[in-house]
Design a protein that fits this description.
The complex is a heterodimer of chains A (about 350) and B (about 475). Chain A is mostly beta strands and about 350 residues long. In chain A, strand 6 and strand 7 form a beta hairpin. Among the domains of chain B are: about 90 residues, Winged helix-like DNA-binding domain superfamily/Winged helix DNA-binding domain (Arc Repressor Mutant, subunit A, Orthogonal Bundle); about 55 residues, Methyltransferase, Methionine Synthase (B12-binding Domains), Chain A, domain 1 (Orthogonal Bundle), CATH 1.10.1240.60; about 170 residues, Regulator of G-protein Signalling 4, domain 2 (Orthogonal Bundle), CATH 1.10.167. A four-stranded antiparallel beta sheet of chain B has the order 1-2-4-3. Classes of the chains: A mainly beta (about 350), B mainly alpha (about 475).
Chain lengths: ~350, ~475
């Protein structure tokens, strides 16, 4: 359970009081170096031109809600997973389906493409994350070579390979994240600190070292050191569950999407939230975010079936993308920034450019 | 509350995933304001008149004005209000969308609003279906009939109660005035379209999985260290974030057209061909990125190769080789870790090692000590030291070197594609698949093996010639599968 036991002499009330006063102190410390706001610095930045983003591909083939997708490093292939257990690898450029696997579980909420492009990982309600090596032989049953790598005690909500095919990082409904050795299935490091389901994670871009960020139902976004398992930074400003977290391309900041219908931007070096992306006509929860290559645009998918495009620096919304007929569960910009892929509960994926 | 619902309630009692409901209610109340809300009118329906009907176009206009948004967005927002059940259509009642014309809608009575607190009961649905059956047999639609049969089966033990309630409600309804009765029937019917949607329709009430842990418990974990954590002035860190955007602005295909053209827009994959990982001649844009940071140079395989070439000429290639070996150790399989660590020690760190790297005494001491009980991060200190050395010293010299100048000179800047509509259609028909990453990896492994063999031979030859010995005949080429 989420609560620790009480020490003798402590009451629930006194602990909460202490916790609240420490939080207040933290905000004070954070405020001391707060000498300017993002939108003020952004005043000197030139306005964005009008964007013309349209659907360029419609990927049909899933028979049920598409819950997750991930791009291959080759910039055109991608893997997607859905509620009925199907995982499909596509060449999005030609619309060819190259591989397909059916997992014996439903709600495959997490899928990831290996950096080499030769394997995919996926997991969900089976509480596991399995790695499937891909094969050139179309007739081969990929499930035969499946390797169950991660074992959690509740659903797997997110997964990503680290800088090689050999390690997998997962987040779970059991409140933890974990780092696994793919070949042996060995748990290399576990990360405890969230007090509710962990819904999303993202690895820091390689230059900036060995950290990752996670977001959960406890409304917190935590930054972790992969080596020690320690929670090195924590942000709690959302009013509801954080559904998705994603690093800014430089690795010095990250964005989050929440059920409170806002997306937020956090500066890691200043250790504070520096922007809130919200509009009073946007009342539905945001489930996913990703940055464009330069970090200037933030694409966010919402539960009202739309994708809003935000100017990260100025905080304004620059575009709305309509097209999906149900919730947008995942948006991802391609590795070279040429396109955006969105996955939706309307059983389709769309490529926008 | 039925037992089933209590078990499933993992802190969902305030349904944080449906936080939109409170916000939607605020809007709906504003819409019903007699002075500033949406215009309403009485509507004739056969022989009765339904009061307070509103048209789709009026709803959209009101929303567009209130939120300062365009009609497409207003229409989407309005449709979501219908999908949630705050507004219902009078005609075509099963399609929960706003039509941008004179189609009629009504505000749902708060009694039938979706609540965050209680999930909708099957018992109530059973009573509703039974009541409609009483009113007119055979009126139930196929999916409703299927629900009815299913509920009849598993609620059999309280079916008498359900039928009794249905009869009672039916009797009470008959005592109402006709217009009130018609209105109530519309409202109730709309409520059930939202909460028991016909098959094949999208339901806004479908929020996916419940959370496992109750997020409403008081959390008692906090970190005192956060307070003591070193921080940077906002002006500095925010300045850096803004600068990053400016630096990469011209490289962002969403902000500036990439050359020759974006493959997704023109169906021409030349852009990808020109930017393959190990292409011989890179593009000018790609080379420009290498100048942004040392990390950019290293993370691009073509850039790293160029840098490697430069280091070879400076006889400091071992630094990069060491860094790469450390990466391999950190991200590699657990099984080979120990072996790799030993190999790295022998090759780079031990006294007299063939590719000895120059790190300061303290770091060397710490590293050698750590290697007694190797773990994947044992070389971190040494790796960071070498990385900083390359970044602060070699990188700068590389930028001024003949190698880099040559690469920059040869780098190509492709002309922008100018396709006619016919050509674009042609391109779309001729989309070709690319080489599978599986094949590319096989080719890469073969390449690596070749390179490794070359290094070994060179090392051996050098050492032998230094010792004044005759070079042995070259070893046979390793067999490749």
């Amino acid at each position: 359970m989420a609560c620790q036991g009480l020490q003798s002499g402590e009451t629930l009330a006194s602990l909460k009081k202490e916790s609240d006063s420490l939080k207040k102190k933290l905000e004070e410390e954070r405020g001391k170096l707060n000498d300017i706001e993002l939108h003020q610095v952004a005043e000197k930045v030139e306005m964005l031109g009008a964007l013309s983003i349209k659907t360029k591909r419609l990927l049909k083939g899933h028979g049920n809600k598409v819950l997750c997708m991930d791009w291959c490093k080759d910039k055109r292939r991608l893997v997607s997973s859905s509620q009925d257990g199907k995982v499909i690898v596509w060449d999005a450029f030609t619309l060819n389906k190259e591989h397909g696997v059916t997992l014996p579980c439903t709600w495959v909420m997490a899928c990831a493409y290996a950096p080499s492009g030769c394997a995919v990982a996926c997991g969900g309600l089976d509480n596991k994350c399995s790695v499937f090596p891909l094969s050139l032989d179309k007739n081969e049953n990929l499930s035969a070579k499946k390797k169950a790598v991660a074992m959690h005690t509740n659903y797997v909500s997110g997964c990503t390979f680290t800088n090689s095919d050999m390690q997998l990082l997962t987040s779970s409904g059991d409140g933890t994240c974990a780092l696994w050795d793919v070949e042996s299935g060995q748990l290399l490091q576990s990360f405890h600190g969230h007090t509710a389901d962990v819904l999303s994670l993202d690895l820091a871009p390689s230059e900036t070292g060995n950290t990752f960020v996670s977001g959960g139902s406890d409304k917190k976004a935590n930054v972790w050191d992969m080596r020690s398992g320690q929670n090195i930074q924590s942000f709690e400003s959302h009013e509801s569950d954080i559904n998705c977290v994603k690093y800014y391309p430089s690795g010095d900041a990250f964005a989050s999407a929440s059920d409170d219908s806002t997306c937020r931007f956090y500066d890691l070096r200043a250790d504070r939230e520096v922007a809130v992306y919200q509009k009073d006509s946007v009342i539905f929860g945001a489930s996913t975010v990703d940055f464009s290559l330069s970090g200037r645009l933030l694409f966010a998918g919402y539960n009202d079936y739309t994708i809003n495009v935000w100017d990260v620096l100025k905080g304004t919304r620059v575009s709305v993308l309509f097209g999906h007929e149900n919730r947008v569960s995942r948006v991802r910009v391609s590795p070279d920034g040429t396109a955006l892929c969105s996955a939706s509960w309307d059983n389709t994926l769309r490529i926008w450019a | 509350m039925t037992i089933r619902n209590a078990i499933r309630d993992h802190g969902q009692r305030y349904r944080p995933r449906m936080a939109c409901l409170k916000k939607a209610e605020k809007v709906v109340l504003e819409m019903q304001d007699p002075k500033t809300g949406v215009k309403s009118q009485p509507q004739r329906l056969v022989i009765t008149t339904i009061p307070h009907a509103i048209t789709g176009e009026d709803i959209i206009a009101w929303l567009a004005g209130r939120f300062q948004i365009d009609t497409q967005e207003a229409r989407n927002f309005g449709s979501m209000l219908v999908a949630l059940g705050y507004i219902y259509p009078l005609q075509d009642h099963k399609r929960l969308v706003i039509k941008p014309d004179a189609s009629l809608y009504r505000f749902q009575t708060p009694y039938f609003w979706p609540t965050q607190q209680w999930p909708v009961e099957d018992t109530d649905y059973a009573i509703y279906l039974a009541k409609r059956n009483i009113r007119k047999k055979g009126i139930l639609e196929l999916h409703e009939q299927e629900h009815y049969n299913r509920l009849h089966k598993w609620m059999n033990h309280k079916w008498d109660f359900i039928v009794m309630q249905a009869k009672e409600q039916y009797r009470a309804a008959k005592e109402r005035k006709k217009p009130d009765r018609v209105v109530f029937e519309c409202q109730e019917r709309a409520y059930w379209v939202v909460h028991r949607p016909p098959p094949g329709t999208v339901s806004a009430m479908d929020y996916g999985l419940d959370r496992r842990i109750d997020p409403n418990t008081v959390e008692m974990i906090f970190t005192q260290q956060s307070i003591m954590r070193p921080r940077v002035k906002s002006s500095v860190s925010i300045g850096a974030l803004v600068k990053y955007c400016a630096t990469y602005k011209n490289h962002d295909p969403f902000l500036l057209k990439c050359l020759p053209s974006n493959p997704w827009l023109t169906d021409d994959a030349t852009y990808w061909t020109l930017n393959m990982p190990n292409v011989e001649i890179p593009t000018k844009m790609r080379v420009e990125r290498w100048t942004f940071s040392f990390g950019e140079l290293l993370s691009d395989p073509r850039g790293r190769n160029d840098f490697r070439l430069f280091l070879k000429k400076e006889f400091s290639g071992e630094n990069l080789a060491f860094w790469e070996s450390c990466e391999d150790l950190k991200w590699g399989t657990a099984a080979t870790m120990r072996e790799k660590a030993e190999q790295i020690y022998k090759t780079f760190l031990a006294r007299g090692a063939p590719r000895w790297i120059n790190i300061d005494g303290k770091t060397m001491e710490v590293t050698v000590k750590g290697l007694k009980h190797p773990h994947r991060y044992v070389l971190d200190a040494a790796q960071t030291h070498i990385y900083m050395l390359m970044k602060k010293d070699s990188y700068g010299r590389y930028m001024k070197s003949p190698v880099f100048k040559e690469t920059t000179k040869k780098a190509i800047c492709p002309e922008e594609h100018k396709f006619s509509d016919n050509q674009l259609e042609q391109n779309a028909r001729n989309r070709r698949p690319s080489l599978s990453p599986i094949i590319l990896r096989q080719m890469e492994e073969e390449q690596k093996a070749k390179m490794a063999a070359n290094v070994d031979i060179t090392q051996v030859m050098t050492k032998l010639s230094q010792q004044g010995k005759e070079a042995p005949p070259p070893p046979p080429r390793p067999k490749r599968n």
